[in-house]
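Lab channel / #folding
Pinned by the channel admin:
"Please post every new chain as: sequence first, then the structure tokens as a reply. Keep commentary short and put observations after the output so the thread stays searchable."

First post following the new format, from NK:
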Amino acid sequence: MEPFLIQSGLLKRTARGREVTAGAWKHLGLEPPAPRNGEPSSDTAPGQGDLL
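Reply from TO:
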């Protein structure tokens, strides 16, 4: 299931673990949470997904 969610852009791998993307929040009809202080938004943060 995880590979499908990653390929669909709903989940991404990061150094901190798995993160739900803004697209997944929107798909569920929810607003994505605001980024924490000093953290870039999840859609612009570099991660393993950028390497593939």
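NK: The helical segments are 2-7, 22-27.
TO: also worth noting, The domain at 1-32 is CATH 1.10.10.10 (Arc Repressor Mutant, subunit A).
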